[in-house]
Write a structure and sequence with these properties.
alpha/beta; binds 2-phosphoglycolic acid
Length: 250
């Protein structure tokens, strides 16, 4: 089963509006066609409308980095999935390790967000982290599997094609020390097997699973050569257009 490679940038809380739009203008005409490689950038909500305008008629997909699970209401400071969809945002990262660690997001909350994104026709880019402690203690299998089981609870099989999952060990994020291709493949394989157990083999083979954590232009192609790694979620190295395009081209 051939899955289209994906390169996704996660800018986190970086850039200013003019730099965000400038980035889109620099890369938008250099991108491969979406059947060769899907390219997406996730940015702060304040930049998204202008980025969408700049990316019009290009294959670049614009993602949010998070959203809430209600469409409206008394939730001061939250971002509505309905508003994101209404603006023309393609999808949203959900359950990033930083949201789990700093903002104490649980799998139960992330599951509600996944369902809300799907209800609004936003593609979830669901992140699944894992700590070094769990790896050393040998219980990372249970950890990864239980995260996916809860995060995807009640997701109908027909909605799976809208979801991308990223395996991101928290010790590899922003550390400059990527998982090696064997470790990264293990995590992505485990996620795919969990999908096969929850749904079926065909669903698992169709699911795009990315690796994230200190991906750079040198290690990206080695990581992506692995059977179960369909692409990369890139933080620090997605911030400069030249470096990001090197990753797309690799
Ligand atoms: P990094 O971040 O590439 O800077 O390690 C990845 C991520 O947080 O998604």
């Amino acid at each position: 089963m051939k899955r289209v490679p994906i390169i996704a940038g996660n800018w986190k809380m970086n850039k200013t509006l003019d730099k965000a739009v400038e980035f889109v203008n620099v890369i938008k005409d250099q991108l491969p066609s979406p059947d060769q490689c899907r390219v997406m950038i996730a940015a702060q909500p304040l930049f998204l409308a202008d980025m969408i305008r700049a990316a019009a008629n290009s294959p670049l997909q614009i993602f949010a980095e998070n959203c809430y699970y209600h469409d409206f209401g008394a939730f001061t400071g939250e971002v509505s999935p309905l508003s994101l969809a209404d603006m023309g945002v393609d999808g949203t990262i959900l359950g990033h390790s930083e949201r789990r660690k700093i903002f104490h997001e649980s799998d139960e909350l992330i599951n509600k967000k996944v369902l809300a994104a799907l209800r609004n026709n936003l593609s979830p880019l669901l992140c699944c982290d894992e700590t070094m402690g769990r790896k050393v203690a040998g219980n990372e299998v249970h950890w990864v599997v239980s995260r996916i089981l809860t995060d995807l609870r009640d997701v109908p099989r027909e909605d799976l094609s809208k979801i991308t999952i990223a395996y991101e060990p928290s010790w590899a994020i922003g550390s400059g020390q990527s998982a090696d291709p064997v470790q990264a493949e293990e995590g992505c394989y485990l996620i795919r097997q969990t999908i096969a157990d929850m749904y079926d083999d065909e669903a698992a083979q169709q699911m795009s699973v990315l690796y994230g954590g200190s991906v750079n232009a040198e290690n990206a192609s080695k990581l992506m050569a692995s059977e179960d790694i369909d692409g990369c979620l890139i933080g620090g190295n997605s911030l400069k257009p030249e470096t990001f395009m090197q990753l797309v081209n690799s």
